[in-house]
Design a protein that fits this description.
three-stranded antiparallel sheet, alpha+beta, 1 helix
Length: 83
C-alpha cells in the first residue's frame, strides 16, 4: 500500500497528509463542533476515518492537544505501514 507523504498542493491548513480539520453539525441542537479527522486503512485495506472531537466552543489549549493526538495517531499508523 502506498501512502501519501506530502499534503496536496492546494491544502493550506498546514496539517500533514491524512489529517484534516473540520466543523461538523449535529442533527439537533444545531450547534457546530470542531473535530480533526485522520484517514487510515484497516488490516483489510478498507479506508476509514478516525474522528478526534474537540468541542463546540474550543479553547486554543484544548484544540492544540487534540490536534497533537490526531497527528500522532497518523504518524504511528504511517510507521506501522512503512515497516
Amino acid at each position: 500500500m502506498r501512502l501519501r507523504t506530502k499534503p496536496q498542493r492546494n491544502k493550506t491548513t498546514g496539517l500533514p497528509a491524512g489529517v484534516s480539520k473540520t466543523w461538523r453539525m449535529r442533527p439537533a441542537p444545531r450547534l457546530p463542533y470542531l473535530e480533526y479527522q485522520v484517514l487510515y486503512q484497516d488490516k483489510h485495506g478498507i479506508s476509514k476515518i478516525k474522528h478526534f472531537y474537540v468541542s463546540v466552543h474550543p479553547t486554543p489549549m484544548v484544540e492544540a492537544l487534540v490536534k497533537k493526538q490526531a497527528i500522532e495517531f497518523r504518524q504511528q499508523y504511517e510507521a506501522r505501514v512503512n515497516r
